[in-house]
Amino acid sequence: MLTVTEAEKIILELITQQQESERRWVALEQADDQVLAQDLVSLVDFPQWHSSAMDGYALRYEDIANHWQTIELNIAVTEVKAGSPVALPLKHGEAMRIFTGGCLPMGADTVVMQEDVEIIGDSLRLRTKPVHGEYVRSQGEYLRAGELLVKQGTRLGGTEIGAIAAAGIGQVQVYRQPRVAIMSTGDELVNLGQPLQVGQIWDSNQYALAALVRRAGAIAIPLGAVPDQPQALKLKMQQAIAEADLVISSGGVSVGDYDYVDTVLEAIGAEIHIRSVAIKPGKPLTVAKINDSISQRQVIYFGVPGNPVSAMVTFWRFIGGAIAKLSGMPESAWYPQWIKVQTTEDLHAQGRRETYLWGQLSFAKGKPIFQPVQNYSSGNLISVIGVNALAMMRMHQTYVPAMDEVMVMILPY
């Protein structure tokens, strides 16, 4: 068996990042959840002009710096609203009514809130002394034109798209989303909507893995279940390879009499790089590379265990990072995010493999804690509902007492 670290290294080395020709331009409204394929530089300053952060009055600080308690400023006839240009400069001894987002008149350098002034006819008196430059958003304060706005490899969400729109950019170049074909193997599997016979189960892996694929930023192609028959499996594999960049099949990768995945992969010319990994759950993991002669593409095949929790742990630990690399995300996104926390309960493992125990990562009195579930059967799909973290026990580590620290992998989806 390969160690987890060795398997991770092999998988990421098999993944080839996209070529320039595979990138595409999309309208900004279609860019949500896409990965940016270029550094995006702002063409404008943020803000684009000096503006007010409050409803109040714009003034020259030098007019009130030394005798703010006694001076009265004349209120200019002009007032400034957001979106309106300022035609007249601010004279010495004047204050100009201004509203949030309004451009500062020439000469003004400070804004006082309307609550901090007293109006006496056409004059204004200060109730408190302002700070020089207070409530002024200076041109270029947040970002200058020509500076980096959003970095290449960023998966675009609402905040990034909002900033890009504010910069006046309507189109962006993004990486093509990877296509991931998903299929399940096993005579016992039944599609949803069909009645169960004794010994049969509904195919949950198809739905769980498709959801994880989408959350990882790829396009899921569910291909349904295939029985434990080599010819049927071969046809389904060939269909998956023709349609996808990555293929995930669940089941059929152990050493049983009806586990045909490795045999069929070899028959169609795949190069198998991984057959098993010293991880629990998830030991029987097949990873292969297939050079598709029809499409002239390289396809990576993941054969994961059929037990539902094993399939998901394998995805979280290995496949999500592969999708991140293929999607054009930066190297930091290819690896799990770890945090050292206290466990609320004793943790046990056999120690023969690197063991992952699922549970809830939360905070108590400002400190992160890990609460494990009570049942760790890899067939117990109910036990993973709502979990957001995996506690990792190293190989040969059999016991972590409650309140001791343990490394916890944060689940990104």
Low-confidence stretches: none
**Could you give the count of β-strands?**
28
Q: Which structural category fits the helices and strands?
A: alpha/beta
β-strand percent reads 25-35%
Across the major sheet, the strand order is 7-4-6-5-9-8
Q: What best-fitting shape do the alpha-carbon axes yield?
A: elongated
Q: What is the distance, rounded to the nearest whole angstrom, between the alpha carbons of the first and last residues?
A: 28 Å
Fraction of helical residues: 10-25%
Task: Outline the biggest β-sheet.
Answer: 6 strands, mixed
Mean pLDDT: 95
Q: Output the number of helix runs.
A: 7
| Radius of gyration over C-alpha positions, nearest whole angstrom | 30 Å
Describe the 3D structure.
The chain is α/β, with parallel strands linked by helices and 413 residues long. The protein has seven helices and 28 strands. The chain has helices spanning 4-14, 61-64, 158-166, 204-215, 230-243, 261-267, 308-326, and strands at 24-27, 40-41, 51-52, 56-59, 72-80, 94-98, 110-113, 117-120, 123-126, 136-137, 148-150, 171-174, 179-185, 189-190, 201-202, 219-226, 246-250, 271-274, 279-280, 286-292, 297-304, 337-343, 347-348, 354-364, 367-372, 389-393, 399-400, 405-410. A hairpin with a 2-residue loop joins strand 24 and strand 25. The model has no long low-confidence stretch (mean pLDDT 95).
